[in-house]
Amino acid sequence: MTGSRVLDVGTGSGPAALAAARAGATAVGLDREPGLLRLAGDRARDTGLGGRTRFVAGDATALPFATDSFDVVVSTFGVMFAPDPARCAAELVRVCRPGGLVAVASWTPDGVMGRIAPTVTRRLPAPPSGPVPTRWGDPEHVRPWFAPLPVTVRTRVCGVRVAYPSVAAAVRVFENKPGPLRAHRAALEAAGRWTAARAALSSLFAEHNTATDGRLVWDVPYLLVLARVGGTAPRA
Prior knowledge:
This protein is an alpha/beta fold.
């Protein structure tokens, strides 16, 4: 990783970009949320990584970078929320140099993270428009997006442990997160349906809890997509 140029798309508060910088790369984090970008910049300065990181506002469907700008392009649970997934896939590949690697991690539809949005949106007065984020967690959807591109793709399902102090704490985190869920909450509040949706969210969280000490602990599956640009398939 030392000396590599890394782009983190949908960086949020910057964890992947900061991890890359910590490993010796020069990292750029991109997101549409100004508040999250400010937080990412603060974290970089506080950890002494400000010289190795840069955070910019931008759109995953039209990345503001030249072709072949990066050695590695990653997205950890970020690009899955962008519109037009096929165009996003093309943009990730475009800005990655030949021989470079595109790596995308996305929640699978069957895990607790993948079930959060359906638990909430089924209570909306009208179904939400736009692409379904968890399609990035299904190889049957992902492969056609990358098929026309100059890449060799492998996928595998991985898992990560996620913990919160309690079920109630997790509900507070998710209902206030920037992104689609916050927009759904506003629509449900306007329709007088948020209380029921919030209770359903709490029940979903408790159903998947593996802790017995009052905390909330999940073992959550995600799909890892590895795309080698113009080369042989990466190990999955």
